[in-house]
Design a protein that fits this description.
Strand content: 25-35%
Helix content: 25-40%
Strand order of the largest sheet: 3-1-2-4-5-6
Number of helices: 5
Radius of gyration: 14 Å
Number of strands: 6
CATH class: Alpha Beta
Low-confidence stretches: 1-20
Distance between the termini: 31 Å
Number of domains: 1
Mean pLDDT: 75
Length: 135
């Protein structure tokens, strides 16, 4: 993660107006900007938390069903594994079969950064939401 790390909380609602908190996004300013652009044309809204340094506190304080991170999924899963109700983690990274397989083997959903398009990202986010709400 770069020094310009940024985070945002994504919340959204179904067309019926039922609101839900969806995810905490952890990544560089460029990464979160790309996500913000993608989410601008969807039913989801972005809201920024207090400070980028507050990831652990933010995760402990809020029960995020999904965390979307840029690359460093091991750090995220280490932070969330001790939570009473850990989130589903989606990692976005470069096309690397070993990294992808390692993430999948550890229960992390993987999205190739080339798949950062609404047609790829939103179905994966919805899948993560369904996984989380099966419990």
């Amino acid at each position: 993660m770069t020094s310009a790390a940024a985070q945002c909380r994504i919340s959204g609602g179904l067309k019926s107006g039922r609101a839900r908190q969806a995810a905490l996004v952890i990544g560089s300013a460029e990464f979160t900007s790309r996500l913000r652009d993608l989410f601008r044309h969807s039913r989801w809204e972005l809201a920024w938390p207090a400070a980028p340094e507050s990831t652990s506190e933010e995760l402990a304080r809020n029960e995020f069903p999904v965390v979307i991170c840029e690359g460093d999924w091991r750090n995220v899963t280490a932070r969330t594994s001790g939570l009473p109700n850990p989130p589903v983690v989606i990692t976005v990274g470069k096309s690397d079969p070993r990294t992808c397989q390692s993430a999948l083997d550890n229960g992390v959903l993987y999205l190739d950064e080339r798949g950062m398009r609404p047609g790829d990202l939103f179905p994966l986010l919805n899948h993560a939401w369904r996984i989380k709400n099966q419990d």
